[in-house]
Amino acid sequence: MAWNIGKSILGTGEMRVDVEREADVIFAAAFIGATLFQNRKNSGLAWRVDMDPSTELGTNRDARTADDRAFMKGLNDACAKVNHLVRTELAKDEGGLVWGLAPTFNRGGMIQAGEGARSEYRRFKPAYARSAFRYLSAARRAAKEGQRAEEMYIGRGAYCGLVVDNDGNAVTAMSTICTTLDEHTPGIGERWRPPADADVRAAQYPAEARTATWGLIGGAALQATLAQQGMRFYPQSDGQLVPLDVDTDIVGYTHGMIRCVYETVRMGQGTAFEMSIGVETFKLASCMACSCFMVANDVEASSTHLGRGESWSPYFSSESHNPSYHADKMRIDDAIAHCNSRYSTFMHRCLQDGVAAMTKRPSWINERHIEALSALDRRLAAGATANNTVARDLFLDAMTYHKGDLDRLNSTLDFGSDARPFCNEGHDWSCVTHSGPVGGRSWETWVNPHTDEEVLALHTAPEPLV
Is the pTM of the predicted complex or chain greater than 0.85? Predict the structure, then answer.
């Protein structure tokens, strides 16, 4: 299938700002549609997204507090905007979106996939968490800080997926991998690859506009660091990475949890977890891109956050798979096709529903994003059906333009002319939950709970699990 090689995803213009607005709108539509799906599935109960207090190294507590409050303000604004659209679409004053704090990080804490995983985790904790950590961090040979960097990516944003069978045995582990995709990749669909002279390339890769393969996180120079931190790159030939081609390829990153979901489907049993084993990432919540894939495959994340899903991608090849010893319930290639088909159907529904809710209330859409919304509506009407990958591929294309998910939402949505006040006759959504997302206190007086010494210890001397 021929790829889109225009200078923007939806063709609204040729500049970086046009791509940004298109990516904003695609994400916002998918997120609103996913919120509608969750509300309908859960009989009107609100869908919760979480944030974690900052643990950024090199900043003091006051600076982390300021960052937390700014993010909380953004969450409040996004909740109020999304909830007006969702509740009006559902014709009910219930449901929508709420936000809270992600589970408190502790060494051995894990993100769980589905109710079965939650029950399994509760049953074995804490001894189970210690054994899982040992399994994930054991090295085949000596590696820095005792971590098996050659097998598990342990850098920023890294979570290691773990598969536990029905007998409670940890049977395989997988971390984030980087894959190169082209028009011949099986199941790839119709993706967007901006040409070498596109303005968006110069904006995203200012020092490597004509050499960095589209989708790379941080550009080509960062890849050596990621490799040192344990990330694996595919496809390979005789154990060596097939060279990237800036003119034909795009790059995607498949997270450890998603890889493990494929394995549980291949096995026909077991549960998937994800644990941070490095010293750079601590939030116990799945990114929105992972969460949508998980919801589509009936294994909802224990916590979801609006962070960054940069160049997120599902599997398209079993070359990089790390199977357990369990016999096939389904061939891995069939498991990939099965999960990806469900994901495509889910993203079709989310984008269709999200666009419908947005187009009915234009005063709630930032005027600079109206053209992109209209273009998305036309694109879906022209070619997207529940059994093809058009909607899925548009979402994946949007993820290759790197921007925070919360910023995408608040850039796309405005407070409209018919605003419905929610809390105290305003738009502060923090009073929706029983005690509020910050324990009954206003986010405006929030103080980051981590001392400078605690943050330093997290990054340099984390509590061991032995």
Answer: yes
